[in-house]
Specification:
There is one protein chain. The protein is mostly helical. It has helices spanning 11-31, 34-42, 50-60, 81-88, 101-121, 131-142, 145-157, 169-175, 178-185, 187-196, 204-209, 218-230, 235-246, 248-252, 258-265, 274-287, 290-293, 301-308, 312-324, 339-348, 354-361, 363-370.
Length: 372
């Protein structure tokens, strides 16, 4: 049983509250009430445990009709087959705890099939390092390869779509929203970070893997997946901004200098209260919704252009509309972006966005460095 941590004196009231919430979740699952499931996923302690998530996540993602017991029949080679295998060979060391070498090998084989199935299903999806870690959480919670593949397919076509392009330009544009969000809510904190000239690359793995790369607690990671799965594709960005705001005192007490700030923010302290982070992220999402957040004047103009042409955002809007009307979501592949136009746009603003351009040019090196 995954029991949220609270003070000992509040254990019995907490249990009663959790039993009540479990009943609410089960009722929402039984009636396929997506709006209620989202509300419950975002509220304190989320969807509570893996048993409930196994039933709720496919409803939240409109994926239960896509679970195919014969999905392995469609698995084959793809352009990133070797890289996927190299990355998965390094997985499942931190969680789940207490598994044997043979069990770890079995999980890796299962995860390989899940990731390969999704990448083979759509040649417009480009693998990125860290994708397998996110997929691994889906597999561990689902206890079903077929369900994990269905969930991953839906997320890849919608929430993760901007990350799955030929370069990391999409995710770097998402990261460029973090500091402007902080500027809207804490001008002193923003000014300190701005003077240090630290870009938001410290949050790259948080956003790409929904914190699966940076945390060791599967229950906590699953809690964050509840939030990201129930929200807009920018929800990981709101969470990242909230993490920085939660560490306000540490940031302000650290030298206003790039390397010191990057070192501080590059790690997540065990004492971080993620329930408070989630509350803060949801408040920012309400106060500064995605449409206004991506238009913020502090976001470099090339990133604003990329965000305005996001593939994920219209896919998400269509996804939400379909669910609201009780329809099956159509996630047919969209036309690939014209990357020549993107390159021209970036070049035209190179003088004001040098660091951003360098980050794009060396995006794979950045990714490999952070995901070693």
């Amino acid at each position: 049983r995954e029991m949220p941590r609270k003070a000992a004196g509040s254990a019995e009231p907490l249990r009663r509250g959790l039993r009540g919430k479990q009943t609410e979740i089960e009722a929402a699952i039984a009636t396929r009430d997506v709006a209620e499931l989202r509300r419950l996923a975002l509220s304190e302690f989320g969807l509570l445990n893996s048993r409930l998530r196994q039933q709720a996540w496919p409803i939240l993602l409109n994926a239960d009709h896509l679970v195919d017991p014969n999905f392995k029949e469609h698995v084959g080679l793809h352009r990133e087959t070797n890289q996927v295998q190299l990355d998965i060979n390094r997985s499942f060391f931190r969680y789940p705890a207490g598994i044997s070498s043979d069990e770890r090998g079995g999980l890796r084989a299962e995860l390989t099939a899940v990731v390969d199935a999704v990448l083979c299903s759509d040649d417009q999806l480009f693998y990125y390092q860290g994708y397998h870690e996110l997929a691994g959480v889906l597999l561990l919670v689902s206890h079903s390869q077929a369900q994990a593949a269905a969930l991953l397919g839906q997320l890849s076509a919608c929430h993760l779509r901007d990350y799955m392009e030929k370069s990391l330009a999409g995710v770097l544009a998402h990261l460029d929203v973090i500091l402007p969000l902080i500027s809207c809510t804490d001008s002193e904190l923003y000014a300190h970070l701005h003077r240090s000239q630290v870009p938001a690359h410290f949050a790259l793995s948080w956003v790409l893997t929904w914190f699966a790369h940076d945390l060791d607690d599967l229950a906590l990671i699953s809690r964050l997946f509840d939030v990201c799965m129930s929200g807009h594709p920018l929800m990981p960005v709101y969470l990242a901004a909230a993490v920085v705001r939660q560490r306000r005192r540490e940031v302000l007490n650290t030298a206003c200098e790039y390397s010191a700030q990057h070192k501080l923010l590059g790690t997540l302290p065990p004492s971080l209260n993620f329930e408070s982070v989630i509350v803060m992220a949801c408040e920012m999402r309400e106060q500064y919704p995605p449409d206004s957040a991506i238009a913020h004047s502090l976001i470099p103009r090339p990133s604003r252009r990329l965000l305005a042409n996001s593939k994920a955002f219209p896919m998400y809007n269509g996804f939400v509309d379909a669910l609201a009307q009780g329809h099956v979501w159509d996630r047919r592949p969209m036309k690939s972006a014209n990357w020549g136009d993107v390159a021209l746009m970036v070049t035209s603003y190179a003088a004001g966005a040098t660091l951003w351009v360098l980050s794009v040019l060396y995006s794979r090196q950045i990714s490999e460095m952070l995901f070693r």
